[in-house]
Amino acid sequence: MARRPTSSDGTKVERRKHNRFPVAVPLEASWTGPDGKAVKADAVAKQVNERGGFLEMANYPEMGSRITLTNFLSAVTAEARVLATPYSREGVSQGIIVELVVPSDSFWGVDLHVRKSCAELHHLEESLLSQGIDLRLLGEFREAVEFLRLAGTVAQRLRERQLQGRDDEDVLSLLSADRIRRATSLCLEVITDVDAARVNSETKGVDDLYRSLKLACDRLRPLLKPKTSAV
After folding, report:
1. What gap in Å lies between CA 71 and CA 44, rounded to an integer?
2. How far apart are CA 10 and CA 152, in angstroms?
3. How far are the Cα atoms of 186, 191, 199 from residue 195, in angstroms, in the given order?
4. What share of the chain in percent tops pLDDT 90?
5. pLDDT tens digits for 33-80?
6. Are 80 and 100 in contact (CB under 8 A)?
7. To 10 degrees, the CA torsion angle through 111, 116, 148, 94?
8. Cα distances (angstroms) measured from residue 113 to each of 65, 110, 139, 171, 216
9. Average pLDDT of 205-220?
10. Which of 47, 135, 185, 231 is most buried (CB neighbours < 10 A)?
11. Cα dihedral angle (146, 152, 157, 163), rounded to 10 degrees?
12. Is pLDDT at 208 greater than 70 in this prediction?
């Protein structure tokens, strides 16, 4: 059975084969201390993948300990082993590196899924660019990536506010503002398609779009600031 290589001071060296993704997932870590007493501490997952990751925390267990992690946002728990503590390995400070006993990307929640999806879309965008694909299609990919990032951020913030019993109107306002931005961008794209004769009276959904735009204009008109007359 292959053994993990060790450094000159005898500590085990991590052989990571999967990229970690930056996240910000609040956790609670619990373990049994050297005196046999139960210990709990708050932590924030900063870089993770389905096998484990780096947790930022002030109070931490000893290297080699087995700990229980609870995701504050989803209340899901997972067992993990501590592979490194501050200064036990180069590049590790103010936190610990853990390995999940049972690999799982779902434990870290929506934040990891969004980061992975964004990375995959970015790689696909680079591939399309190298193949000389239409720049308009690349624009669609960039828009999709930005929407995924925002959706992930909003979902996490809403969950945090719910757990803390705080008002979430500012988060919902952020989502509404982005809808306005995306709707404006889409309208300009539709205008371009109409001018280029890619859209006509036979295009499916034209009637519904027109009615929706008219309703939106009726609702938005009272919100427009009146122009001040020149003195």
Report:
1. 9
2. 41
3. 14, 6, 8
4. 35
5. 988 899 999 998 988 999 999 999 988 899 999 999 999 878 899 999
6. yes
7. 40
8. 28, 5, 22, 20, 33
9. 94
10. 47
11. 170
12. yes
Segment 95-112 mean pLDDT: 87
Helix axes 169-195, 135-164, angle to 10 degrees: 160
Calpha distance 118→126 (Å, rounded): 12
Paired tokens of 189: 């794209």
Confidence of residue 143 (pLDDT cuts 50, 70, 90): confident
